Amino acid sequence: MRKVLVLEDEDNIRSFVVLNLTRGGYETIEAASGEEALEKLKQHPDIRLALLDVMLPGIDGFEVCRRIRASNNKVGIIMLTARSQEMDKVTGLMTGADDYVTKPFSPAELTARVDALSRRLGGDEEPVVDNGEISQPPFLLNTRNRTLSKNGKRIKLTQVEYSVMKLFMDNPGKALSREEILEFVWGRDYYGEVKIVDVNIRRLRLKVEDDPTNPAYITTVWGFGYKWGF
After folding, report:
1. Using an 8 Å Cβ cutoff, are 37 and 7 in contact?
2. pLDDT digits over 159-176, tens only?
3. 1, 90, 176, 202: which has the fewest Cβ within 10 Å?
4. How far apart are CA 55 and CA 22, in angstroms?
5. Which one, of 216, 204, 214, lies nearest residue 94 by Cα?
6. Measured between alpha carbons, how far is 112 from 106 in angstroms, rounded to an integer?
7. What order do you get walking across the sheet with 153-155 strand by strand?
């Protein structure tokens, strides 16, 4: 069963989330504080996905996200926030989250977003179809273990970032629209906004570019999308 960490300090909201995820076939691990969430992650290394509330006493959701990403790029992360300000969404994504859901949210929306991210992360039971490598010096993408290297040095990617990079490296020199990237990586049933593509591109540039302010590999096609610059 897919295991999900639910970090939410308000008991009624946490119970609501847990109930709906349980109905959706997930096993839930509950935490009421950032400190407790980090401890639960240590106790349950098989957690596949984490829902993190942003506004918490003590360690907030952003910091929990940073700490998860410092040691684990395989866990899917969705931020839960009651605030709709643009900077909260961007901050969550730049700290390593894969998606965000703004409160109040419907059970259907939350479950759909969790399902979509779970599918993108893949399952242990899924067969490996592509077991090769894509070499575009100085980059090497290993599609068997889903890793990226630049000049022989490993670049730590989240599973969503890996999917974006694979799309780019499968289509060198091709201009890809934001909508194409969104559909390929996040799926046709994604409820969120296309701006999630832009924030993930910004995050990727910090990892792959020599100078992120003057990108040479992931270039912008103004008014359209992005191109892997080979």
Report:
1. yes
2. 899 999 999 999 999 999
3. 1
4. 24
5. 204
6. 10
7. 133-136, 139-142, 147-150, 153-155
Query: pTM of the predicted model, to two decimals?
Result: 0.81
Phi, psi (deg, nearest 5) at residue 223? 75, 5
- Is the pLDDT at 128 greater than 50? The verdict is no
Determine the Cα angle at 33 with ends 32 and 34, to 5°.
140
The lowest-confidence range among 5-19, 22-36, 185-199 is 185-199
Give the Cα separation of 80 and 100 in Å (integer).
Answer: 6
How far apart are the C-alpha atoms of 60 and 215, rounded to whole Å? 32
pLDDT per position as a tens digit, 69-115: 998 888 999 999 876 667 777 888 899 999 988 888 888 889 988 99
Encoded tokens for 68: 């998860």
Helix (H, G, I), strand (E, B) or coil at 108: helix
| Torsion, CA 22, CA 117, CA 108, CA 18, rounded to 10 | 30
Q: How far apart, in Å, are the Cα atoms of 202 and each of 94, 125, 166, 212?
A: 8, 32, 16, 8
120 alpha carbon, distance to own chain's centre: 9
